[in-house]
Amino acid sequence: TYCSNIANIQITRHGRLGQLDRAREIFESLQHKNIVSWNSIVACYFNNNQPKEARQLFDEMPERTTVSWNGLLSGYVKNGMLEDARTVFDQMPERNVVSWTAMIRGYVEQGLVGEAESLFGQMPEKNVVSWTVMLGGFIKADEIDKARRLFDAMPVKDVVAKTSMVGGYCQVGRLSEARELFDEMGEKNLVTWTAMISGYVQNNRVDVARKLFEVMPDKNEVSWTAMLMGYTQSGRMEEAMELFNAMPYKSVVACNAMILGLGQNGDVGKARWIFDQMREKDGGTWSAMIKTYERKGFELEALSLFSLMQAQGVRPNFPSLISVLSVCSSLASLDHGREIHAQLVKALFDTDVYVGSVLITMYVKCGYAQHGLGEEALEMFRKLCSLDIAADDVTFIGVLSACSYTGKIEEGLEMFELMKSKYLVDPKTVHYACMVDLLGRGGRLEEAMDLINKMPMEADAIIWGSLMGACRTHMNLEMAEVAAKKLLQLEPWNSGPYILLSNIYASKGRWAAVAELRKAMRSQDVKKTPGCSWIVIEKEVHMFRGGDSRPHPEQSLIVGMLEYLGGLLKEAGYSPDGSFVLHDVDEEEKVHSLGYHSEKLAVAYGLLKVPERMPIRIMKNLRVCGDCHSAIKLISQVTGREIIVRDANRFHHFKDGFNLHHSLNNKLPFGVGVVSDPMCARRGWKKLQMQDVCYYHWPLSGADQFGLFGISEYVMDMVDQLLPHLL
Predict the structure, then answer these.
(1) Out of 110, 287, 565, 583, which could bridge 319 as a Cys pair, Cβ 3.0 to 4.6 Å?
(2) Is 176 buried (19+), middle (13-18) or exposed (0-12) by CB count in 10 A?
């Protein structure tokens, strides 16, 4: 008996560690297997998600007790097999309160509260656990009034039941009732205090939560983390950092919350410092840091960290894969995107509707509007309306953006009014930003300012930044200064307002004002985001910055190509536009500066490394300057190369001296793409010839609703496969 008891303990221990083979070996070695031995090995298989093997062992048992039957029932419940569990429950020769409670718990965990309530009413006898499980079911279903009636009927209300009720009230926002019950409790444990603090946090009563936290008699890492998350979720990062520094033990969950909070607040450097200091990291840590990089525009850092994560043997979780997929979309990095797609398939995430949407976004490289296909976006909106598919706030972001990109000011104004009057969608800040951009692009700056002044909410930095960009384009210095002051109030650390205002002063020759702005930036320790461009060659990212302060290893070849291009461009009639050089220097220095802009360096390297028949794909973190746009368009003509540039705003597709996106928006009212004849034949697309380039018209149905320039057979196949699951 002594040996059997030791063996049973070892069986249970190895089962908990997932060492099923060792547990089974010990079980089989027993000469005399008692009922506890059989129950232990059955539980091992259930706990390791092998219910079929567990049932086989149960059927082999020479004798069974109620405990054995309860083990079978609970095992099915743990594996989410409710029908099998109910069959066992109904077949049991004898049931006790544990049997009834296990079945009720199964219904509660699956959200079948009605079935749980019905079974609870049939129970011949109940204990405090049964009452508490049913109470938790009502709370989980937000049926708080039923929960209260059950709570009042409970013959014994222990601290667990009372704490559950406090949490339930907090969950539905009834804080006064939660606090009343909390204050009435004679006995409170750590969970009770934490539940009340978390309730205040979840309902944005962070200061009240902090007062309660301060009088808490004992604190553990859960209570510290709950209070910390109150600050991080509300963006109060100074107080969060103060509390974080005071924590006696910084849990992984707390560190993850700080990384996300700091990242959301724009302090990416501090977020990475916390990440690097952590001795222990989980999947949430890596995904939090990757998400921070993705949201704040550090795409290359996100990819680098994802690679490090894989190199260290950490299995990517769902959030990290989605973040990296979004990065691939922003970078137009199809190779990386395909790798992430493969991992999603391997992890069985690819059938998820949200994942399918993100994949399509990646494959069509951020949709119509960013490709200059604004007319197609509007046509898609009309088609949705004709099919009686309700438009939501996200739909109108795309529609208003499309109107802005295509210069359809009147149609955009009409859509904005229809959004409110016909579709009953209340405009949010982002919709007003689209409208300000629309009016600003059209030079209607007074109307844009009037719209800002009439907004029902405060204009954010995006809106003022859009207006200021329009002021730069249309040289309205007075309004630009107003927008700059607003921007600096909202984001004093942001270099954007300084740079834009400096650009306007420089274009007007006011170099003293430019110098004053630069002095102000230095005094405020504001750093300018350096312009950089990059190109992926054989899965390696090559980064270029303006000038030659950080030369590429093959800089001499790049300079040689630039000089060669300079000669070709000069023969073709190109003249550098010195207005895009924002320093008080002579014309010769301006020409030199323009020649070494980062996008030109990247294009030169692409011409050296990318095979002739392949398009050259460049990414830039800022907008392409006007001179580079003109130069690259001409480079595509004199070299006969196809060049695609993805800047901070949109794609630019240059071929034979034309920016295809711009020219086609003005000339073709249908989807177009530079593709092969076999692709068109297979999809039934119609071919037409224009400007010595073949274009194709296809019906707006299924996957062919997505028009994309330079699209490959692979991309279209992916869209064909993915879209039917989402329509």
Answers:
(1) 287
(2) exposed
Print burial letters for 312-321: b (CB count within 10 Å at least 16), e (below 16). Answer: eebebbeebb
DSSP classification of residue 66:
H
pTM over 0.70: no
Buried b (16+ CB within 10 A) or exposed e, 537-560: eeeebbbbbbeeeeebeeeeebbe
The answer to whether 379 touches 391, Cβ cutoff 8 Å, is no
Beta-carbon-side half-sphere exposure of residue 631 (alpha carbons within 13 Å): 28
- Write out pLDDT tens, residues 34-88: 899 999 999 999 999 999 999 999 999 999 999 999 999 999 999 999 999 999 9
Contacts of 219 (CB under 8 A, 6+ apart): 190, 213
Structural contact between residues 291 and 263, judged by C-beta atoms closer than 8 angstroms:
yes
Beta bridge partners of 462: none
* Confidence at residue 638, expressed as pLDDT on a 0 to 100 scale: 93
What distance lies between CA 582 and its chain's CA centroid? 36
Query: Residues in the chain, how many?
Result: 727
Is residue 82 within 8 A of residue 106, CB to CB? The reply is: yes
Residue with tokens 């100074």: 238
- Amino acid code (one letter) for 713: E
Residue 297 — left, alpha, or beta (φ > 0 → left; ψ -120 to 50 → alpha)?
Answer: left
Residues 6+ apart with CB under 8 A from 611: none
Q: Which of 362, 367, 398 is nearest to 382 (CA)?
A: 398
CB-based burial label for 393 (10 Å; 0-12, 13-18, 19+): middle
Distance, C-alpha 11 to centroid of its chain: 43
Q: What are phi and psi of 406, to 5 degrees?
A: -95, 0
